[in-house]
Write a structure and sequence with these properties.
By secondary structure, this protein is an alpha/beta fold. It folds into 2 domains: about 120 residues, Response regulator (Rossmann fold), CATH 3.40.50.2300; about 130 residues, Response regulator (Rossmann fold). It has 11 helices and 8 strands. The strands form 2 sheets. The chain has a 5-stranded parallel β-sheet with strand order 5-4-6-7-8, sandwiched between helices. α2 runs parallel beside α3 and α7 runs parallel beside α8. The longest helix has 23 residues. The radius of gyration is 22 Å and the shape is elongated.
Amino acid sequence: MEDDPLLQDILGSTLASQGYEVETASDGLNALWKVRGGGYDVVLCDYKLPEINGLAMARLVRDLVNAAARPALIALTGAPASLMDKEALPGRAFDEIVAKPVNLDRLVSIVRRHLDARAGAATRQDAGCSGFAENREGYNADPRPTSQESHPSPCILVVEDDEVQRSVLKSALEGTGYLVKVAVDGFHAVRMLRDGAFDLALVDYHLPEMDGLATGRLILNLVGDVRPRMIAFTSAPSHLAGRLAGVDNAFDEIVAKSDGLPALLAAVEGHLRSSPGAKARRAAETVFLSAA
């Protein structure tokens, strides 16, 4: 997975010359869809990718792909120390980090080592041997609302990495009577929206690791028809609108930050009137009133 066409060709041809079957992807989202489809033993992942960087992609693979089908994840980066600092967490995302410029002979050796390790693990599993394995499933696990929870009022997810703006939005929405939960990045937002019962999501466009558009597109693909209404808020609405052209319509509306808090609250109120959760609440109220 590499967005530089030249380096992509060099890495692909080098590994193919060793007899490996190689496929390529130029961005994190396409790579994620490929890996979720299965059939890969090793993924080489550039850290700096557009929309969703390599770290976010690796974290999503670990969250969405069953451990038995998960490939070895190898990061390629020109700043290995910086990535190692971000990886200093329980259940780190990558199996190995390789510094750029990449030494091709060393890279082939690393890929071979991981493939041999996977083959050995498969042999031990077939022989009925079970050893101790590192538990990566709890990476940044947070308590999340489940689809079984029932909320007396609309439930909104605010996705914003800026602590001050996040606090302002949460207070304003709670003051209007909404139940509000927060996510500090796109990864946590995807997890919460995939498993939670939300009526609406407010997604900041400029997010770390995975931007708002990538977050919206992931939610659209993972949640599908039952997804909540989604509003993007950004200081560059024309730029986001231009990027939305020709891709899945991830957002129901784009609100400019310069329009102020009243405009955002008005957009929220308008979309909540027609959200699936609001319709379900009205249906329940009708049944209750008719039975009274």
